[in-house]
Amino acid sequence: MNHNVEVLADKTALIERSLELVRAKIDEAIQQRDRCTIALAGGSTPKPLYESLATFNLPWEKIHIFWGDERYVPPTDPDSNQLMARQAWLDRVNLDDANIHPIPTQGENPATDAQHHEAHLQEFFAISPGEFPNFDIILLGIGDDAHTASLFPHTSALQVRDRLVTVGNKDGQPRITFTVPLINHAHNVFFLVAGASKQQALGQIFAAEADPLTYPARLIQPLGELWWLLDEPAGRELAV
Ligand code: 6PG
Fold this sequence. Notes:
Bound molecules: 6-phosphogluconic acid
Order of helices and strands: EHEHEEHHEEEHEHEH
Number of strands: 9
EC number: 3.1.1.31
Mean pLDDT: 97
Helix content: 25-40%
Largest sheet: 6 strands, parallel
Function: Hydrolysis of 6-phosphogluconolactone to 6-phosphogluconate.
GO molecular function, one term: 6-phosphogluconolactonase activity
Pathway: Carbohydrate degradation; pentose phosphate pathway; D-ribulose 5-phosphate from D-glucose 6-phosphate (oxidative stage): step 2/3
Strand order of the largest sheet: 1-9-8-5-2-3
C-alpha cells in the first residue's frame, strides 16, 4: 500500500487537488485497462468534485459509476447518494444508463437488495463468489465518528470478509455498503475530509494505536494507493 496524506489550505484547494488526482487516475485506468470503474462517496464533501467532473469531456463510454454505500431510501429521496451524484454530475454528462450501477434500495429489504447488488458486481466483473474485483477508484469520506462508507463503529458490517456488499446500520437506519475487503482490493482509494469536526476522528485514525472497531476507517488498508486529502481545519492537528 502506497500511503499519501496531503493537508490543503481549504476545501476549495482540497476539491481542486482531488479533481487533479481523480482525473489522472481515470486516464491511467483507461490507458492500462481500457475502462475505469469508480465507486462514489455520499455525504456532502464530494459534491463540488462531482460538479467539477461534469465540466470535463471524458471518454464516458469507458467509465462505469458505482457507489460505495447508499442510504436505504428511494433514489428520489433527498438523502439518496445516487440522487446527489446524478444531480451534481451524472445527469449533466453523456453517460449511458448501462454505465451507471446504483445500489438497489426498493426491493424486499436491505439484505435482498445487498444480495442483488453483490450478484450484479460479480456479473459485471466476471468473478466468482469469494473473489474480489479491483475497482480503479473508490472515493470515501469519514464521519465525525470515523465511520467510512456505511461501515459504522461496532457494527457487524465491519466483520464481513466473504462478501462484496453488506447491510450497514446508522442509528437503526439501514444502509447498504461495500465491505472492508472490497474497498481494500481497490487500485486507488481516496479519502476526502473537510472541516474541524473531523479532527478528533482523524487523530484516532492516524494514532499509533486505536481500536479499528471504534474507528472503522483504520480498517481501510488498500492493496493499491491510499490518498488522504484533508483541508486545513480537518488536518491541522495531524503531525504529517
Ligand atoms: C454517506 C457517506 C458517508 C460520508 C461521511 C462523511 O452515505 O453519508 O458515504 O460515509 O462519506 O459521513 O460525510 P460528509 O462528507 O457529509 O461529511
